[in-house]
């Protein structure tokens, strides 16, 4: 999924039907959601234009800058200081946005597509297939997410691609359960019964009545999953399972070694951490706003 | 009620069986073989074959799986490759450490989260409400490892108030009959040891409890808001009951139902978070143990440990479901 597609995803609200149009207009009145969109927009812009924004090469080491074992703080030349190898911290943060954004989006896309497929099959077919799929999902959910992801990385080897697969896989059961539950709930609704009683075919009912209504919790969860994915990816990086080239400016990986420099250069821990928090906060704010905007029960309250 | 419990227990069987297959298959997918991991540099074709025979790795796959099921039944997973202690021994020492940390984190989260959420709902739309909303949003957006590093920097490195690693001071000579250090100190009646253990527990518990705190506060607030609009609350007020009685007997009691489910759901998050928290604070628990086992290809630990954590997780969720059915009769009927 490219950045363009994410933005296209946002545009759906403009052109969609009544529910979406209404949700879109309610979303615009929520200050929290607007802040969220601004933070995410900032995150995406930095990720795309990192080569133009970054003053230095993020991998370029300059050991002459290192004094007394560690790294000088902010200066006119290096606005956020340099790290333990004399690399410009700001450039590394900017380039790191690229990694966090792509890994997060790909991971969620993997989990979302497989999870939705399984959930739709289970919810639509029901019976034995439903039982098998959902028990398999229960088994996956029985292993704590991060351990599950670590296990997958252990089997595949450390690296960026492997992290995407690992975090994506942990998302599969969440989306499968969500869509299945949502489809089951919609199936009993009056408008579905009405459509069935006037003779609309099952497939048409699924496509035009059940799915559009069942999908809104998935969209909310998808946004929130992006936030969690960014944290999980950084967590795996922090544990040393990220990119094997230590020069790669990945935010989680950047936090791995700072423990030793807490005394002399605490900024090395603060800066990547704040970058993670800002991007995660952005997605969480949007997710919260969407949840309230899409909830039919809250529709008449505003 | 009995039927509900029996049905849930029966549902456990396929899940546990699936888990054992998953762990069994996954370990065979790991690059590098157990023989290689055991022998390291000394591996020759002959010694590898010998180890493979000794560990029954040359048998057909279904026989190996049956053997694995038997080890689970006997709870005998052999000796850890890296520590040379039995898996059961390590588990006995590390499991209490993680449970202690998780319980402390939950006490922090619930003890602070429920009052905060309740107050926010009572002052709906006010300054305190908005502050708590922003706070809880920040709470779920700050990664545990970042919060842990910051806590360590401020309270251990800068202020020097609290220790930054381990469960007790290196010089401590306390005995640990239960391996729950807080409990041990209380049993021994040693206030000095208790203080020492609590000081070590504080920062990791706050780091691990931060996300549950934010979640509990949010859910409590939402649940209390829902209940405050109920007819029975209005009726209770109309009858002239005092606000305190209405709040405690009608509002909180009903609002805590959704909160209790959420608390159960946090178990998995706590176990995941434990891996990171234990890494930052050098806490000798299950999380770091399994993480290191994965890095070191410590097969005996992986075969036993991961399965055991999953079983604990499944059982806790079952207990939560059952207790939920007890406090909420509506769920039994559906």
Summarize the structure.
Chain A is mainly alpha-helical.
- Measured as a percent range, the helix fraction of chain B is over 70%
Which structural category fits the helices and strands of chain B?
Answer: mainly alpha
Overall form of chain B: globular
Helix/strand order of chain B: HHHHHHHHHHHHHH
What does this structure look like?
The complex is a heterodimer of chains A (about 300) and B (about 325). Chain A is built from twelve helices and no strands. Chain A has helices at about 5-15, 20-30, 30-50, 50-55, 90-125, 125-140, 145-155, 160-185, 190-195, 200-240, 250-255, 265-295. In chain A, helix 1 (about 5-15) packs across helix 2 (about 20-30). The longest helix of chain A has about 35 residues, at about 90-125. Chain A starts with a helix and ends in an 8-residue tail after the last helix. In chain A, about 45% of the residues are buried. Residues about 1-15 of chain A have low confidence and may be disordered. Chain B contains 14 helices and no strands. With about 325 residues, chain B is an all-alpha fold. Chains A and B meet through helix 6, helix 7, helix 10 and helix 12 of A and helix 1, helix 6, helix 7, helix 11 and helix 12 of B.
List the helices and strands and how they pair.
The complex is a heterodimer of chains A (302) and B (334).
Chain A: H1 3-15, H2 18-28, H3 31-48, H4 50-53, H5 89-125, H6 127-141, H7 145-156, H8 160-187, H9 190-197, H10 202-238, H11 251-254, H12 267-294
Helix pairs in contact in A: 1-2, 2-12, 3-5, 3-12, 5-6, 5-8, 5-10, 6-8, 7-8, 8-10, 9-10, 10-12
Chain B: H1 2-29, H2 34-39, H3 45-54, H4 61-74, H5 87-122, H6 127-141, H7 144-158, H8 181-188, H9 191-228, H10 231-238, H11 243-280, H12 286-296, H13 299-327, H14 329-333
């Amino acid at each position: 999924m490219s950045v363009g597609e994410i933005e296209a995803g946002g545009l759906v609200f403009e052109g969609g039907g009544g529910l979406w149009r209404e949700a879109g207009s309610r979303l615009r009145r929520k200050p929290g959601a607007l802040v969220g969109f601004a933070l995410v927009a900032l995150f995406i812009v930095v990720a795309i234009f990192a080569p133009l924004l970054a003053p230095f090469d993020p991998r370029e080491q300059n050991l002459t800058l290192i004094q007394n074992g560690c790294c000088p703080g902010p200066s006119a030349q290096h606005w956020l200081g340099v790290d333990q190898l004399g690399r410009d911290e700001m450039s590394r943060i900017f380039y790191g946005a690229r990694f966090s954004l792509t890994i997060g989006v790909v991971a969620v896309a993997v989990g979302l597509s497989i999870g939705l497929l399984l959930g739709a099959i289970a919810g639509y077919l029901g019976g034995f297939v439903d039982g098998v799929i959902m028990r398999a999902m229960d088994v996956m959910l029985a292993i704590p997410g991060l351990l599950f992801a670590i296990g997958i990385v252990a089997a595949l080897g450390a690296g960026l691609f492997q992290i995407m697969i690992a975090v994506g896989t942990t998302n599969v059961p969440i989306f499968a359960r969500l869509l299945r539950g949502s489809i089951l709930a919609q199936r009993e609704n009056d408008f579905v019964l009405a459509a069935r009683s006037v003779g609309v075919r099952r497939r048409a009912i699924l496509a035009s009545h059940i799915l559009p209504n069942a999908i809104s919790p998935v969209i909310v969860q998808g946004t929130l999953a992006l936030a969690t994915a960014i944290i999980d990816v950084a967590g795996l990086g922090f544990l040393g399972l990220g990119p094997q080239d230590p020069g790669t400016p990945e935010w989680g990986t950047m936090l791995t070694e700072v423990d030793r420099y807490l005394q002399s250069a605490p900024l090395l821990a603060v800066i990547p951490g704040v970058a993670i928090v800002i991007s995660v906060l952005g997605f969480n704010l949007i997710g919260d706003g969407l949840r309230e905007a899409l909830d039919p029960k809250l529709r008449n309250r505003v | 009620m009995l039927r509900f419990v029996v049905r849930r227990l029966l549902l456990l069987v396929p899940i546990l069986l699936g888990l054992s297959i998953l762990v069994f298959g996954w370990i065979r997918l790991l690059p590098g073989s157990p023989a290689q991991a055991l022998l390291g540099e000394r591996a020759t074709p002959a010694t590898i074959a010998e180890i493979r025979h000794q560990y029954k790795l040359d048998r057909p796959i279904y026989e190996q799986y049956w053997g694995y099921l038997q080890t689970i039944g006997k709870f005998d997973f052999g000796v850890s490759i890296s520590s040379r202690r039995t898996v059961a021994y390590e588990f006995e020492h590390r499991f209490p450490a993680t449970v202690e940390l998780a319980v402390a984190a939950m006490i922090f989260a619930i003890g602070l989260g429920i009052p905060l959420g309740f107050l926010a709902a009572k002052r709906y739309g006010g300054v305190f409400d908005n502050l708590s909303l922003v706070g809880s949003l920040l709470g779920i957006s700050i990664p545990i490892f970042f919060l842990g590093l910051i806590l360590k920097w401020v309270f251990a490195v800068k202020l020097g108030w609290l220790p930054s690693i381990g469960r007790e001071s290196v010089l401590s000579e306390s005995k640990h009959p239960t391996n729950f250090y807080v409990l041990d100190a209380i049993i021994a009646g040693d206030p000095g040891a208790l203080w020492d253990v609590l000081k070590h527990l504080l920062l990791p518990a706050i780091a691990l409890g931060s996300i549950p705190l934010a979640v509990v506060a949010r859910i409590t607030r939402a649940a209390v808001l829902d209940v405050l609009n109920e007819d029975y609350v209005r009726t209770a007020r109309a009858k002239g009951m005092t606000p305190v009685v209405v709040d405690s007997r009608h509002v909180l009691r009903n609002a805590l139902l959704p909160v209790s489910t959420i608390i159960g759901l946090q178990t998995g998050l706590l176990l995941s978070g434990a891996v990171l928290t234990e890494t930052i604070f050098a806490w000798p628990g299950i999380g770091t143990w399994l993480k290191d086992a994965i890095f070191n290809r410590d097969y005996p630990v992986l075969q036993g440990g991961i399965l055991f954590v999953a079983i604990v997780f499944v059982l806790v969720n079952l207990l939560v479901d059952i207790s939920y059915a007890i406090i909420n009769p509506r769920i039994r009927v559906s």
